[in-house]
Design goal:
mainly alpha, 10 helices, 65% helix, disordered N terminus
């Protein structure tokens, strides 16, 4: 009798595609965990000398982030999931261009905010996403055929994936350094997106293959969500936290790093 009483599955509020919100929420949560580990590594590096308990913590985080295979798989899985779901979401958007401008303004806030923390984020995930949205708006106007967009997305994705393994040692003349950075090449030397030398960078996200994956996602959205309705009309409340994070993804993305820094900063002052 006890095991027969199950919580009923309820319709998702407002008729939204809950599976899209959940997938976006998962990507945001994974990104927050990724950034949390980076922040922890930075503070634990000094805490380990004041408390032996943090030695093992620092070594674990350092080894995890120092493992190039695990590190890159984790990071790019997050980025690609984020861009793929964002591409699908364009089927629910009235204006990709306006959303792109909003995200670009948020990206500018990130750049300015982290400049005070001596971290230079000039073409991070939000910058790349905003540019992808704006480019998609133009592409959708002049090349609206979804199969043409899919073909372009596949080509750009393959190009980007072929580029990635070689970005560590590629180098280009200084006059081409800017455009190569934006397109996905990461040559040694100055990072610049707007023609201004800015030195090292953090949270770098290249347009290739990210924009290609974005276009593939938009094809999925146009194919499966052309009626702007969920493909899974019932959901279980267990997914509600993921859906909440997905619905508030931009706000969480903007807020989580300052909150993490604030918590670690307070612990650093109060405990150590």
């Amino acid at each position: 009798m006890f095991f027969k009483s199950k919580q009923p599955r309820l319709p998702y509020p407002n008729g939204r595609a809950w599976e899209i919100d959940a997938a976006r929420g998962l990507a945001v949560i994974l990104m927050m965990i990724y950034h949390l580990l980076y922040d922890l590594r930075m503070y634990a590096a000094s805490w380990q000398y004041q408390n032996e308990a943090f030695v093992s913590v620092y070594l674990w985080v350092r080894n995890f982030l120092g493992n190039s295979t695990v590190h890159h798989l984790h990071y790019w899985l997050i980025i690609y999931l984020f861009f793929f779901v964002s591409g699908i979401s364009q089927s629910f958007s009235r204006s990709s261009f306006k959303r792109g401008i909003i995200v670009a303004l948020c990206a500018l806030v990130v750049t300015v905010t982290f400049s005070f923390l001596e971290m230079r984020i000039v073409f991070g995930a939000l910058h790349c996403l905003s540019l992808s949205m704006i480019l998609y708006a133009g592409l959708n106007k002049f090349v609206p055929q979804k199969y043409a967009q899919l073909a372009l997305g596949v080509v750009l994705t393959v190009m980007g994936l072929l580029i990635l393994p070689y970005t560590a040692w590629m180098s280009f003349p200084a006059e081409y350094d800017n455009i190569c950075r934006v397109l996905g090449f990461a040559p040694d030397g100055l990072l610049t997106v707007l023609g201004i030398p800015i030195g090292s960078h953090s949270d770098y996200s290249a347009l290739l293959p990210s924009f290609g994956i974005f276009l593939i996602g938009s094809f999925v959205g146009k194919t499966l969500y052309k009626e702007r309705k969920t493909r899974l009309p019932f959901y279980h409340p267990v997914f509600l936290p993921l859906c909440f994070c997905g619905k508030n993804a931009l706000l969480l993305y903007l807020a989580h790093q300052p909150i993490c820094y604030g918590i670690f900063f307070l612990v650093d002052i109060l405990v150590f």
